[in-house]
Amino acid sequence: MEEKRALLKSLILFLFFFSLTIEMVAAESYCHAQRRVLVNACKRLIFRQSPTVDCCIRIRKTPMWCVCSIITPQLAALVNANDVSYIVGVVRRCGRPVARGTKCGSLTAP
């Protein structure tokens, strides 16, 4: 009887961790797709051109956690304060509120 309980507990634990792993893989796949669509829609921002309507739609629809999850300290070191101000300004002009001091990965909004 104890062996069956131990086996059942092990099976439940396995299923729990397995479902978490599947959810994490699905979320990362979803975020990867969201980031790809965002980058494709907003390429002209690299040259500091005005965002297109499609770009603003993507900025409003793309989950922030998908974008902020890839902002590592190493990536943040490549971005200067003027770039952060520019990006935050574009995001705000596109209608997505960004509170002063908002953290996105290793970056902080001015």
From TrEMBL:
Provide the alphabetized UniProt keywords. Signal
Q: In which domain of life is the source organism classified?
A: Eukaryota
Where is the Bifunctional inhibitor/plant lipid transfer protein/seed storage helical domain positioned along the sequence? 26-104
- Which InterPro entries does the entry link to? Bifun_inhib/LTP/seed_sf (IPR036312), Bifunc_inhib/LTP/seed_store (IPR016140)
Pfam families linked to this entry: LTP_2
Q: Write out the coiled-coil annotation as residue ranges.
A: none
Task: Tell me the leader sequence span.
Answer: 1-27
Is Signal among this UniProt entry's keywords? yes
- Name the record gives this protein: Bifunctional inhibitor/plant lipid transfer protein/seed storage helical domain-containing protein
Record organism: Cardamine amara subsp. amara
